[in-house]
Amino acid sequence: ALHGRLARGAAGGPGWVDPATPHGAKRIAANIDGRPMKLVMSDEFGVPRRHFTDGYDHRWTALDKNDYTNDALHTYSSKNAFTRDGNLVVKTEAKRTVIVGFNDVTGRPSVEVKNYTSAMLQSWNKFCFTGGVLEARIKLPGAARVGGLWPAFWLLGNLARHTYVGSADWVWPWSMTRCNRHLMQKQRVNGCLSTQHFGMAPGVGRGAPEIDVLEAQPGPMRAGQGDYLKTFVGEPFASSSLQVAPGRDAMRPGPGNWPGPQEWYNGVEHGRNSTININFYGTYNHFPKEFQGPEYSYWSDAVSWNTQLDERHFDDFHNYRLEWGLPDEDDPRRGGYLTWYIDDELVLRLNSTNLNSGGTGSEIPTEPAYIILNVAVAKNWGFPKPPADGDICPRECFDCARRAEWECTCGLPVGFCDMLPSEMLVDYVRVWQDPADERQKVGCSTPERPTKAWINGNEHLYRQKEDRAPLRPIVHGGAPCRPGAEGDEYCGNTNGRGTCAPRWFSGLLGLEAGACSCAEGWSGPACLNPAGGDEIDWDPDVGVNPLGFETPIVGTYLLYAAALVISVGVGGVAMLRHRSHWEEQEKHRSR
After folding, report:
1. Averaged in consecutive runs of 10 residues, what is the pLDDT profile of the chain (591 residues)?
2. N or C, fewer C-beta in 10 Å, the chain?
3. Phi/psi-derived region of residue 315, left when phi > 0, alpha when psi is between -120 and 50, beta in every other case
4. Dist CA 201 CA 146 (whole Å)
């Protein structure tokens, strides 16, 4: 399943290792088996005043975008992500934003009011990796016993861009390369497709699986109470999960209950402070309008374990690590594993055998994955539950500015508003890979799992309506400065990052004006952001196949020769209807 285009690719960029990374961190041993691992990416966040607005940074993009997912109460602003005192800061505040735009979920123009502003950093389509060790050192935001914040550190396959909902439809979180004709309508790029388009190998299913290294839920409810009545871990806790499709469509455990015989995945190893997350077994993915039918809907499973946290994780830094081993090249049902650690203590170990026991066909991921760091605010994460019989609190107001009103106070976690603003601090992010394993690669579009042509051919799914392209070109200098020592210092001359170059009109009428000019290896308006790039460009000079790509949603029947000869009658009308519905949906998304 890992076989694809075998060309090695072209010479690329300077790599992704931050020069400030300590020498002792450049080679480590994997926890799972002691194999030597070499550093391939790092960000130490040591340069102050860095910002991550689109176009500023080679590694990261901080979103300026509303979040329509997961009952979000926040919007994302790039102003809420910056570096200070050697750390990345992700700031969450009670700041109201009126959003006039396009709703990714409904496909219609909308006006929304979000009462919270936070930040999300993505390395989407910049830095991705397949297999290896990922680690971040993080101080969690807020207070351990106050609910309402949702800090996360996670991976997502590059074919889906988080919060850009259209890119994820029938793509998230698929991790099945083989053909299953019963599921063709549900997996947008499935293993039953027999032709090559957008550079994707025929007969290889594709998707965007999700690996959650850390999702923390603070709060006051302890084990043996409320939602945690039947479990050994209460708030605050960290969830570590693999989310994949296809999931189990029958014989599933109910939320809040332990799995019965043959209901879930067997033999999963976990640490002494961790237990299965009985409150979240996955998601039923269904779609609006003409795609509401069961032929388009599917379960995705969350193989998820919770680990007990305490005040120490919110008062100081701790290490959160994932070790990811790729499955066998010829049989993706064998050999793969995912192992999670907190401070090098085992949280969860999941391998191909465990995943096979679910009987779904899902596989340990082989997709290039990008890194996400964010803090969300969502009414389904640490907020009071929806009203039950006899409960007079409407739980419809979640506005700290109106907390004097009882209708709003009862819908907010106790102490939540007093805790804001709050900051998640990240000391570093590092990735290592096994230099002896050629399957472990750096790159968002690899020979085995290309993504570039697909994204180029469907770029409207990966950008907002007003954007010309999903990502802006990286800027190198241009920030206003005053020529001289002060301006040179602002542009990083003392550290060799850049200088303040006088503008052509500087000195006229006594006006002193300059702009930062970056030295090689630095970017951003004020030359604060270190350069980076794949050392090997696995997918150079890619173009879009002019024939396009026939997805299963448009008309799976076109894959069969018999369907091609049906041009009259009910079958032909049905195919045209499927196509027209898909095209209409695509038009809505591209507006």
Report:
1. 40 86 97 96 97 97 93 96 98 93 71 95 98 98 98 98 95 97 95 91 97 98 95 97 96 94 95 96 88 90 98 98 94 92 98 96 97 97 85 89 90 95 98 96 97 96 94 96 90 91 81 92 94 93 50 43 34 32 35 35
2. C
3. alpha
4. 49
pLDDT at 11: 58
The candidate with the shortest Cα–Cα distance to 366, out of 416, 320, 421, 328, is: 328
Identify any residues that bridge with 150 across adjacent strands, giving them in sequence order. 376
Cis bond before residue 387 (omega within 30° of 0): no
- Residues ≥6 apart with Cβ < 8 Å to 369: 128, 129, 130, 155, 156, 157, 158, 209, 211
- Nearest partner of 116 among 440, 381, 439, 389, judged by Cα: 381
| Whole-angstrom distance, CA of residue 556 vs CA of residue 563 | 9
Beta bridge partners of 61: 122
Name residue, tokens 């990052």: 497
* Cβ-contact 535, 15 below 8 angstroms: yes
- DSSP H helices, 301-427, are 312-315, 352-356, 406-409, 416-419
Task: Say which residues have a Cβ less than 8 Å from residue 187's Cβ, sequence separation at least 6.
Answer: 170, 174, 176, 205, 207, 245, 246, 298, 552
